[in-house]
Every structure is written in C-alpha cells, then in structure tokens.
Automatic annotation (TrEMBL):
It comes from the Archaea. The chain crosses the membrane at residues 12-33. The keyword Transmembrane applies. Keywords: Membrane, Transmembrane, Transmembrane helix. This is DUF11 domain-containing protein.
Amino acid sequence: MKHRSRRNVKEILIVGFLPVLILAALGNTYSLFFQTLEIQGVVHTGFWGGGGVEGPCIGIQKTIDGAFTNATTGEDISERTNLIHIGNANPPYFPTKFKLMICVHNCGNETLTEVEVTDRLENQFGVINWSVDRGNVTILSFPGPGNYSKDYIVWDIEELQEGEGVCLEMWIQTLQNPAGWYAPTSGNATYIINQGASVSAKGSSGELIAKTGSLSISLSPEDKNYIATILTQLPYSTPWEYSP
C-alpha cells in the first residue's frame, strides 16, 4: 500500500512538471529577461542560456519608469512617485522627468550585423541625456507644433553575438507649450510617449525587423494644487517583440 502511494506521487510530480517544461520551450518566461538565477547563469526572455532559436532572430522591448520629479517643488528625486505636476497653474513651472529604456536581444543562434534601433518621442516629451551598453546614439530634434519638438532616436549597435542583449537608457522630460506651461497641461487624460521602437538587423536569411508597442501614461483628474496621480502602473514594459 505504501509502495503504491509513492508511485502515485512520482506520477503526479512528473505530470505536473511537464507543462513547465513545455512553457519554457515555447518561450513564455517574459519577465525573466536579464535576471540572474542561481542555476546555470542568465535566463533571457523565453530562452535558457544563449539564443535558443535555430537561425537568425532579433527581439526588442521598451520600459517607461517614473516620475522622478517632486510634483510640488520640481526637484529631482531618486525614488519614483505616482504624483505629477499639471502645468496650467501660476509659476513656478517645471518639467517632469521619466526614465525610458530600450533593450535588444539576439534570440537566434548566429551573429547579427547592421543592428540598428530607431524611435521617436511624441511632441510633449524630449530627451535630456542617455547611457548605452554599446553602440552610438544620435538624437535628432525637429520643430513640432508650438514650442514642441520631435526627438528622433537612432541607435547603431552594429553587431550582436548569439544570445547577447544590450540596453539604451534615456532620461526624458515633459516640454513647454507656446504659453510656457509644461506638459501635461491637464489631468484626466492619457498622454502618448511614443508609438513604438523598431530594430532592424542582417542575418543569414536577410533583413530582420521587430517593433514594440506604444507607451503612454494615464492621469487622474488634477486636484486644487494642480497635481494629478499617474494611474498607469510604473515601471511598465511592452511585451517582447521578435522578428518573424
């Protein structure tokens, strides 16, 4: 009787563990990218160890985090807050800062060349500065409506080895409108930060392209002190997108 009980337990354990193995093989571990586990090294999104896909593959993800500005004083803060200054009050006016990150991953089993990321911020947001794991970053600003400008981001990574991942971290802030008010100028609204970033690369099968979804933040109605709450849970990351 005891022997039969132990056998049943083993069968249950085996059957219960099979879905985990299947999910890992299908690449459903999206939250684990660049996180180190105490096993055999680093788990990349959907892949154990290196690339994990036969042939060329490129992936991209974006993350927005913040705000990093005191909504009352305009001072920079090191811990994120969910409060944001609404720029339609009397002076002082000040911008609100956020952190924007783009990560790229070679999810295939070969080296990729001519790897390039392009992105564009919407009119009410601009790049302050940035840091990058590798490659060259160019920010091109073009006039937009009023005092706003459009920041185009070009990140030349050039080459990515099998299983390699790199990230670009940018500090961005809200911009002034023609009246001198910093965005956002009203609460109870959704503000689009951008429509998505694209990555292109060359592999043995030709050109590879992947694009993220858009990023936006939703705000509550403003209070009497011209402060609103950021309703979007930050940090927020788009799902990883991969080349076909």
